[in-house]
Amino acid sequence: MSAPAQTSSAAAGFAEDLGCCNLRWSLALLEGMVAAGISQLVLSPGARSTPVVIAAQRLEQAGHLVLTPVLDERSAGFFALGLARASLQPVALLATSGSAPAHWYPAVIEASESGLPLLLLSADRPPRLHGWGANQTIDQTRLFGAFVREFHDPGPPQPCPSRSAASQHEAVQSDAPGPSQSQAAAALKAQRALGRRAAEVSQGRHAGPVHINLPFDEPLVPGQDCNATVVIPGHALPSSSPEPTVSSTSPGTLASPPRTAFSQGSTAPGLEPTSDSEARPAALSVRAKLSGWPKGRGLIVCGPGAEQRTPVSAQADRLPLQQALAPALWRCADVLALPVLVDPLSGLRTGPGSDARVSAYDAILRNSSAAQALRPDWVLRIGRAPVSKVLGRWLEGVPAILADPAGRWSDPGHDALSRLELPAAAVCEALVAQQLVAADQEWLECWRSAEQRAWGLVAAELDAASEDGPAGLAPLTEGQVVHVLRRLIPTGEALFCGNSMPIRQLDTWWRGGDAQVALLGNRGASGIDGYLSTLAGLSAAGLHCWGLTGDLSFCHDLSGLLLAARLDRPLLVLNNDGGHIFDYLPQNGLPDFERLWQTPQRVSIGAVAALAGLQHRQVGDVVGLEQALADIGLGPAVIEVWVDPEISRRTHLGLWERLARTSTLSD
Length: 667
Fold this sequence. Notes:
This protein is an alpha/beta fold and 667 residues long. Helices cover 37% and strands 13% of the residues. Strand 15 (494-497), helix 16 and strand 16 form a beta-alpha-beta unit. Helix 2 (18-35) packs across helix 3 (50-61) and helix 2 (18-35) crosses helix 7.
């Protein structure tokens, strides 16, 4: 009978309270994430997530993690999205069980479509409570469906060894029932590996959200004798996004994921391996031979996300696989005389560039003669589908080659000949090196001429709008607001633009070049939700970010104003009293049009700003706008810009009419 007594004693010596086990389990997961580059965790308060919160506190105290509590999970999701967009580093989100993580869904969709790294940590009830009507218990398995890159549920924490035993990988064998020290250490090792894997996947070639569901049983708070210390194994890691190299053993392929969507025998553009061993800069380490490139006149279209870097991510040397696109792109455009159409969210509209940059395409293509004369034989598309509907429709029927290292199909017109899973910079370099395109200076000059003339007409329209009253006191139009911002935002800062009308205004009125301003927007799913929370996240990441949005987008995310202390630059709200984008759509004129489509909110923006502790100014003309910006300086405030929707509509329709009837754009 003595042996069983010894066994019981050994088991008791190994066992520890479940609260401590929950904490060690959570620490191991977060340690793996930190080792792979996580430095930010955004959490919303809750009980079931307590073990992860305590673990995160320990990591924060050790200088490895920054915690940001945000009351509303929906706002927290977009705040984390802003952090990730600015830094291009993975950001962790934490919420309790039940409906709480479901509030992340809109931000998860945007992150998935934009390729931004989020780690979604949802606390959960233990399996024994599922399906039995337990409080705050729902099925959280694969809650986010296809919008995450991976889903994991490691199950409830397993009995854990002491931290010293785990860190030294000691194996203590015993006849006692239950796991041995070595088994428990292996479980913690697996948990760390899961954290590292999730962080790596989120920022990999197909970057995006990863969901980990974490069931915990009570007690959720460890006892006072719980000795759980922070260990970050292998903290110095190689880059989590290594550049692929060209294989010399498998014709027509590259080593690791980059590949074409067609076989090498296809007449569509393809790849061939190259034996060139010339040393390459790390930023452009992919070498490929392109084959089967289309003939004739071509152009390059850079859509949203073509160049993702921001001043914050560039400072931290966080370069995605389409890294350092600008130098290779502009050299390709200059050498091969290829026009480059740059969406406002491409990351290429502003700053130094090339005479081949075209930013007035939306205006140019409203002229039927110019649209016909400038139609290309092929187009190289980089990034997602452009903001401009006019450009999107014009591109339909033009054979396209897609360059995207993540392998996305940004081809709503279904015109792609081929998809090259390569950094766009490598494609541009290959076009130059292999001389696949015959430079046609006359073709480029046609585009340059149209660009200059179109911007001349746009400037004339702005001047005409300014003459609609005393000098500087004419009613404001969106074009004048964009013109003022373009002139005043300093180099190295950013503008976060809301969806619906504001982003289209930015596309129409922001001319390419001049100050290097990062133009940003949530264009993955193009929703108006989460605007204020995303802006706060961008600012919290260290990006000096201005704001430009509409009144409905502002009202849609009022809980984001709880994060107003994070803002450090002015936010301009274009108040045209509702959703006047529908004035330009077929819905205009339908019964109950204002109530059911425009949906004006009749909210006092000044009163709302005051609740958030923000200065508020209301302006209606250029003089008032410039004075408000001068008074506020480089600080946070809400500037409500009153825009008469009828004057705005007349201005746009007048510009489009003049563009359509001019005979000089296609000369």
